[in-house]
Amino acid sequence: MNQYGETASLGTSGFTAIVAGSAPADFKKDEWGNLVIIANVKEANTSQTNDYLSVTVYVNNSKLSAARSIHFIEFV
């Protein structure tokens, strides 16, 4: 969602996602239009600490980006 609570109008090909310095395992939109990023944290950059990962989403062909440090949950 953007700052106005609206979902992205572009498809996932309009974005680039980076999780802990690497491309995610999967990047798609759900049925509500939200971007969904799935990352294999075991294969991600091991320099991350305290169960937090940096996630950055860039809008392709634009200078816009959003970055967050998020808490992740490992599923076994």
Which helices and strands occur, and which strands form pairs?
Blueprint: E1 15-19, E2 26-29, E3 35-38, E4 52-59, E5 65-71
Antiparallel strand pairs: 1-4, 2-3, 4-5
Summary keywords:
mainly beta; two-stranded antiparallel ribbon; single chain; globular; 76 residues; three-stranded antiparallel β-sheet
Care to describe what's here?
It is a single chain. This protein is an all-beta fold. It has strands at residues 15-19, 26-29, 35-38, 52-59, 65-71. The strands form two sheets. It has a three-stranded antiparallel sheet, with no helix packed on it. Strands 2-3 form a two-stranded antiparallel ribbon. The termini are far apart. The mean pLDDT is 80.
Give a concise summary.
It contains no helices and 5 strands. The chain has 76 residues and is mainly β.
Largest sheet: 3 strands, antiparallel
Number of helices: 0
Question: What is the helical fraction, as a range of percent?
Answer: under 10%
Multimerization status: single chain
Order of helices and strands: EEEEE
Question: What would you call the structural class?
Answer: mainly beta
Order of neighbouring strands in the sheet with most strands: 1-4-5
Cα-atom radius of gyration: 13 Å
* Overall body shape: globular
Termini separation (Å)?
Answer: 29 Å
User: Beta-sheet strand percentage?
Assistant: 35-45%
Low-pLDDT residue spans: none
Q: Please tally the β strands and state the result.
A: 5
Give the averaged pLDDT, no decimals.
80
